[in-house]
Amino acid sequence: MAYVFVSLAALVTALLTLFSGFGLGSLLLPVFAIFFPLEIAVAATAVVHLANNVFKLGLLGKYAHRGTVVRFGVPAALAAFVGAALLARLAHLAPLGTWSWGSSIHEITPIGLVLGGLIAVFAAIELLPAFERLAFGSRWLAVGGLVSGFFGGLSGHQGALRAAFLSRSGLGRDGFLGTSVTCAVIVDCARLLVYGVTFYRGHLEAIAAGDGRGLVVAATLAAFLGSYFGARLARKVTLRALQRFVGAGLVLLALAIGAGLL
Questions:
Q1: What is d(CA 95, CA 208) in angstroms, rounded to the nearest whole number?
Q2: Taking the CB of residue 49, how many other CB atoms lie within 10 A of it?
């Protein structure tokens, strides 16, 4: 049943990224949080995110602007190391408190509060009309790489920030897409390296025993399928009503994560 749920979730989230404006990582993280500890949910989402971006890199990587990749991607990778290391640190902090609901006991943890807060904040940002017009000039590329890379390493939220800093860097449509996906792959590789060295390795046996690796593979394949069919249904379009619905759902899931329900 877990395979069906995760696969359907990945398929639907990949489709929703086309129409809602939210990224795959933002939508898939809460789903993995149902099955894994939060830090492992971030790492599992990163694996699917990386695989999906490598697929897109094969299609768009040739359009990447090398100079922009260096100016933005290198700082992003360095900051991703820091963000991922902070996530590992948060994962080892003791719970701040507990509360009960019926016979269930839930823990309020630092990592839950941080990830839940970030999901809520970035969902709210995506819903603000002013954010759609937010863009920075090319002189801010290094700063943008640091900011987006840090949050990419910490929680996987990098797409919206990356777009805000690359959208006015003088790239054409293909150059923007190629550069963006190349930088995304760089950040994903950097953060997965830290995740693997810190907490992922320690949970590997537990994940394997619970078919965790199979769930990640199933989610990856389903995400490919969702992206494929989504691309055939329509071009990149943001439907405001759907965006609001998805954003509200993410805020509710963020509250559940922060409260220790997930």
A1: 26
A2: 28
b or e along 170-197 (b: 16 or more beta carbons within 10 Å of the residue's beta carbon)?
ebeeebbbbbbbbbbbbbbebbbebbee
Nearest by Cα to 122 from 86, 152, 87:
152
Closest by CA to 141, choosing from 202, 83, 190, 70, is: 70
- 199-254 pLDDT, tens digit each: 666 655 555 555 666 777 777 787 777 766 765 664 555 556 656 666 676 777 77
CA distance 20 to 250: 12
Sign of CA pseudo-dihedral 216, 221, 125, 242: negative
Calpha distance 90→85 (Å, rounded): 9
The sign of the torsion formed by the CA atoms of 132, 136, 138, 144 equals negative
Alpha-carbon dihedral 170, 136, 29, 234, rounded to 10 degrees: -50
Tell the burial category of 249 from Cβ atoms under 10 Å away from its Cβ (0-12, 13-18, 19+): middle
pLDDT in tens, 19-69: 555 667 777 787 777 777 777 778 778 888 888 888 878 878 899 999 999
Distance CA 260, CA 254 (A): 10
- With tokens 């929703």, the residue in question is 16
User: For the chain, what are the domain ranges?
Assistant: 2-258
